[in-house]
Amino acid sequence: MAESSTPIKWFVWSLLLYVAAWTAAYIIVFLLEGGPLTFAYYWGYLALAWSFSGGELPMFIWFLSVMLFALEVFGFFLVLWVRRRRTRNA
Q1: Per-residue confidence of the chain (90 residues) as pLDDT tens digits?
Q2: What is the C-alpha to C-alpha distance for residues 4 and 70, in angstroms, rounded to an integer?
Q3: Secondary structure of the chain in the HEC alphabet?
Q4: In this structure, are residues 58 and 49 in contact, taking their beta carbons and an 8 Å threshold?
Q5: How many Å apart are CA 23 and CA 9, to the nearest integer?
Q6: Which of 25, 29, 36, 76 has CB 3.0 to 4.6 Å from 64, enough for a Cys bridge?
Q7: Is the dihedral of CA 87, 88, 89, 90 positive or negative?
Q8: Distance between CA 46 and CA 57 in Å, rounded?
Q9: Angle between helix 2-33 and helix 42-50 axes, rounded to 10 deg
Q10: CA distance linking residue 64 with residue 59, whole number of Å
Q11: First vs last Cα of the chain: how many Å apart?
């Protein structure tokens, strides 16, 4: 039973990591823009970015979020590798 739920857990964790990356990218872009941080465009920009017809700002947020997501995934696998290595050496 545990093995059948593993792909679901990986999907849920990946989705949560991407939402965290998107939120961080959204905040970074809006703070660097110099205007007030508002979440009024959050879901609209997300939809525009993933439809690949959103224009410059949503696409830049998308690009930054993909880069942040890649860093998060790399960090996740690095932690897994270190933990498995420690348990193997113990």
Answers
A1: 455 568 888 889 889 999 999 999 999 999 998 888 889 989 999 999 889 887 888 999 999 999 999 999 899 889 988 988 888 886
A2: 26
A3: CHHHHHHHHHHHHHHHHHHHHHHHHHHHHHHHHCCCCCCCCHHHHHHHHHCCCCCHHHHHHHHHHHHHHHHHHHHHHHHHHHHHHHHHHC
A4: yes
A5: 21
A6: 25
A7: positive
A8: 11
A9: 110
A10: 9
A11: 28
Residue 13 near residue 69, CB atoms below 8 Å: no
Tokens of 70: 């890649």
Token pair for 22 = 């998107």
Identify the CA nearest to 21 among candidates 75, 74, 71.
71
Residue closest to 21 by CA, chosen among 81, 78, 74: 74
